[in-house]
Amino acid sequence: MRNQQGGEFEVQLNCAPLLDTNRQNIGWVVALQDITQNSRLQKMLTFQAVHDTLTGLINRREFEKRLESLLDEAHHDKAEHLLCYLDLDQFKLVNDTCGHRAGDVLLKQLSSLLKPVLRQTDTLARLGGDEFGVLLSHCPIEKGMDIAETLRKTVTAFRFSWDGQVFSVGVSIGLVSITEVSGSLDEVLSQADAACYAAKDRGRNRVHLFQPDDLQAQERQGQIQWASRLQEALDKDLFRLYYQTIIPLEDSDNTMPHYEILARMIGPEGEVIPPGAFIPAAERFGLMPKIDQWVIRNTLAWMGDQLRQNQQPVFCTINLSGASIGRDDCLQLIQEQLEKRKVPANNICFEITETAAIADPANAGRFIAELKRMGCQFALDDFGSGLSSFGYLKQLPVDYLKIDGFFIQDLANNRIDQAMVASINNIGHIMGLKTIAEFVEDAATLDILRQIGVDYVQGYYLSRPEPLESLNSVRVMPR
Fold first, then answer.
1. Domain ranges of the chain
2. How many CB atoms lie within 10 A of CB 329?
3. pLDDT in tens, 406-442
4. What are the start-end ranges of the H helices in 360-414?
5. Where is the GGDEF domain positioned along the sequence (predicted)?
6. CB 409 within 8 A of CB 443
């Protein structure tokens, strides 16, 4: 029906019997009820249930529902479909430079550009963040590769303008064929994600087709499994603290025992898993801040116990990942735990890598300054690995330089490495910093480091990593 202004509206017809005084039916009462608002609300709620609120595209829940239907069709009718997983490259740059509002506008503009590339029977969805999914129904691999490449070129050609700045973004696309032999929904999504990250690992802004014998994709899937295991380890407290002694080369009667704290993970069979096996997955899936915070809490708890039980302080170095540098929750946790455990802040040194520090030196500098204000100290690890190491060092108020182990491993046989270590040590001392050489694995290397004048050493020749719980009481440093 239409109202007086010519607008359409919906009505509901309600009928009720008209009764006389003897309750005999003598007619009917008919009423029209305007239900336009209720109808519109219902339609809006139905739309929102299956669409992304920002872009208007199909949302993840509806996307997975449609993918499940295509899998069923492929299993029963031997139909062939394709799944594309798209992850934007350089999107974080726009968000960090211009803010999240600019990022939202970019996503909406890209959504409008991608839809015309697809066929009417295809599905384009926003899966979350800067990730999109495409379902190509009844599509052979060759045709799907062409469509995926067109999607990639469309994104690459796009230029996003914001406040006088122009940005270009790329997209890495993982492609998975859906056939009668395809696995479950989760398996197919895992394969698509693995193929997408294989595209990123090969240089970004490219299309990668998943193959059963694809080593890169298999590695990515293995990391996905690691992410699940890491979360379980966090939930079930399956990490353990280890320590390695850091030894001063100059005799001192007042030397406090100095340990670097290391993390290990306990596997399903009780085996000890080294960090090299799980840290890459933890970094890729954003779990390093949680692991860092677990280490901080447990280290400071142990240090507090040592103070109460032995009345002798220890000096501990705790590694912080790049993902934790600058985080307010990390700063807050450190402050809370120092107060709770009654550990002097100047007994703690946080170790960060040179690579993480120079990724955002201004932010790293602020983070370091705040912790140093509390009394904590800092060590810069892997120093000398970057081309601009000495230049960035001026911006970072650290206390220790840990010389990159690359220069230490063959020190006894390489005069260039000896010159590099001497140079780093000299500049560190000019700046008032202490130097630490790691990866010391033989007596000859130790003698050369002593001659150069390095302040501290650590390595398997001096001390292997051991469970922290084995330190029942602190002890005087060996020399």
1. 1-50, 51-212, 229-470
2. 10
3. 889 889 999 999 999 999 999 899 999 999 999 999 9
4. 361-374, 389-393
5. 79-212
6. no
Residues 350-388 have pLDDT tens digits of 999 866 776 677 778 888 899 999 999 999 887 875 545
Helix/strand/coil for 427 = helix
Chain centroid to CA 377 = 26
Identify the pLDDT of residue 220: 61
Which residue from 249, 273, 245, 270 is spatially nearest to 259, judged by alpha carbons? Answer: 245
Backbone angles phi, psi at 348, to 5 degrees: -120, 135
3-state secondary structure 341-360: HCCCHHHEEEEEEHHHHHHC
CA-based nearest residue to 431, from 376, 387, 383, 364 = 383
Contact 110, 203 (CB under 8 A): no
Q: What is the pLDDT of residue 12?
A: 60
Q: What's the CA gap between 199 and 87, in Å, rounded?
A: 10
What are the backbone dihedrals phi and psi of residue 264, each rounded to the nearest 5 degrees, phi first? -130, 160
Yes or no: is domain 51-212 CATH 3.30.70.270? yes
Q: What does the DSSP assignment read for 22-76?
A: T--EEEEEEEEEE-HHHHHHHHHHHHHHHB-TTT-SB-HHHHHHHHHHHHHHHHH
Bridge partner list, 25: 19
| Contact call for residues 191 and 179 (beta carbons, < 8 A) | no
Strands 258-266, 239-245: pairing is: antiparallel
Residue located via tokens 């067109």: 150
Q: Which of 169, 136, 245, 227 is nearest to 463 (CA)?
A: 245
pLDDT given at position 476: 37
- Rounded to whole angstroms, the Cα distance separating 188 from 209 reads 12
CA–CA distance from 103 to each of 92, 128, 130 (Å)? 8, 13, 9
Q: How far is CA 322 from CA 8, 27, 400, in A?
A: 58, 80, 18
The predicted pLDDT at position 14 comes to: 62
Cα distance between residue 171 and residue 90, in whole Å: 9
Give the tens place of pLDDT for each residue, 186-244. 889 888 988 888 888 777 899 999 887 665 555 666 666 777 889 899 999 999 999 99
Tell me the whole-structure pTM to 2 decimals. Answer: 0.59
The length of the chain is 479
Q: What's the confidence (pLDDT) of residue 215?
A: 57
The two three-digit tokens of residue 307, written as one number: 């103070």
Counting beta carbons within 10 angstroms of the beta carbon of residue 258, is it exposed (0 to 12), middle (13 to 18) or buried (19 or more)? buried
Specify whether the CB–CB gap between 474 and 312 falls below 8 A.
yes
Second-level CATH architecture of 229-470: Alpha-Beta Barrel (3.20)
Distance of CA 274 to the CA centre of its chain: 20
> According to the model, what pLDDT value does residue 477 have?
37
Q: Which residue ranges in the chain fall short of pLDDT 50?
A: 35, 387, 474-479
